[in-house]
Amino acid sequence: MQKQHDIVIIGAGIVGLSVASLLTELPLSIAIVESHEVPSWSPEAYSLRVSAISEASKKTLAKAGAWSAIAQKRISNYTDMRIWEQAIDASESLHFSCKDIGTENLGSIVENALIRAELQSSLANSDLHKANITWYCPDKLSALQIFESHAEIQLQSDINIKAKLVIAADGTNSVTRKIMHLPEVSRSYAQYGLVAQLQTQKSHQHTAYQRFYDKDVLGILPLANGDCSIVWSCSQVKAEKLLQLSDELLAQKVTEFSQGVLGDITISQSAKIFPLQLLHSRQYVSERVVLCGDAAHAVHPLAGQGLNLGLLDAAVLTEVLIDAWKANFDLGDLSLLRQYERKRKGNNVQMMTVLDSLFAVFQSTNPVLQQARRIGMGLLNQVKPVKNSLVEQALGLKKL
Ligand SMILES: Cc1cc2nc3c(=O)[nH]c(=O)nc-3n(C[C@H](O)[C@H](O)[C@H](O)COP(=O)(O)OP(=O)(O)OC[C@H]3O[C@@H](n4cnc5c(N)ncnc54)[C@H](O)[C@@H]3O)c2cc1C
């Protein structure tokens, strides 16, 4: 079956849905191809996957017509962040507070399923936009050919789509990136992230915690129902062992690892594990194809930046496309797509380098680096301008 659209978006994760929503101000025919049904969200129970999102991301989601509904339904703002490592005690942790930078909070913890559900419902509200949205779901991109005037996309269902532009938001293992042979730099951290939710004896007090110990990182994020979400990054072998433990034993391990900072812990939602990867596509664009979000770059979740970077991609890409459409440009033109690449690549590489170095420094067992780490954290706590500048960068309040 032959179909025709102006733009095809591959992947309806948060980034793909944001791109689609941000483009609805144009009278375009947009196709969304997604291999899985978009998960629903329910107020009854917290969904397992949550993300810490920045002010910049909230602005993008607001522009996409989703933030006010998300904020009304369920978010957890955090006001403080405490980071400590193996050699020091939780009481000596590096402390960031929203008061130091004059903001109301440092960010918000939001369920991924809620963000997707609200983006999807904003897209379905046809009174609010000019675009015509067609879903191909569940369906999969299986082949892609580029011609001078258009791209041809073959779906697994045998549907064939002609379009001016293909936007790949199909995640870390992007099939689009692979079909187009866009060169990538990738490195497995040989780590997995174990995600679970906990009830804690002491109140989280709207504080996010992060502890580095040996090769592991434990992030604890405060949730709106008083529980916490954890991401425990560790070796694959260890993650699989932790996953096999009973909830009681896992809770005990988390209490030990977090040095009892939140008192005794019980597991309120059982754990799952996710592989972690560092990936960067050397090219974000080629004729009639553009990559965004995890399809272009994947980072370690230790600083909660992956989605924030992807939402910045979505904001910049759609700005470039909207301006080009108004100027009557061909939306698949390579020189146009390169404007987006120039605007985003440097910024993404810088953030990835910072995160990768941070990971290397905290993972090092070299005693000199361990000592430097201890001194560095102590100094950083005292030098407020440097500390505040770091936190502003991480929150997207300041450009890198
Ligand atoms: C444990 C963990 C914790 C994290 N915490 C944070 C955090 O606190 N803050 C933060 O900013 N980031 C965080 N991240 C990173 C964040 O989750 C990702 O950066 C973000 O979800 C990427 O979104 P995306 O839309 O680009 O890709 P994805 O969410 O991977 O979406 C890709 C979509 O494409 C679809 N798809 C794939 N292939 C095809 C195909 N061939 N055809 C059709 N559809 C296809 C998939 O089904 C999927 O729906 C975390 C990551 C992990 C692993």
List the helices and strands and how they pair.
Blueprint: E1 2-4, E2 7-10, H1 14-22, E3 29-33, E4 50-53, H2 55-63, H3 67-73, E5 76-78, E6 80-85, E7 94-97, E8 107-111, H4 112-124, E9 132-136, E10 141-146, E11 151-155, E12 160-163, E13 165-168, H5 175-179, E14 184-200, E15 207-213, E16 216-222, E17 228-235, H6 236-244, H7 247-257, E18 265-281, E19 285-286, E20 289-291, E21 297-298, H8 306-326, H9 334-363, H10 367-382, H11 384-394
Parallel strand pairs: 1-12, 2-3, 2-13, 3-9, 6-15, 13-20
Antiparallel strand pairs: 4-8, 5-8, 6-7, 10-11, 11-12, 14-17, 14-18, 15-16, 16-17, 18-21, 19-20
Helix pairs in contact: 1-4, 1-8, 2-8, 8-9
The structure holds flavin-adenine dinucleotide.
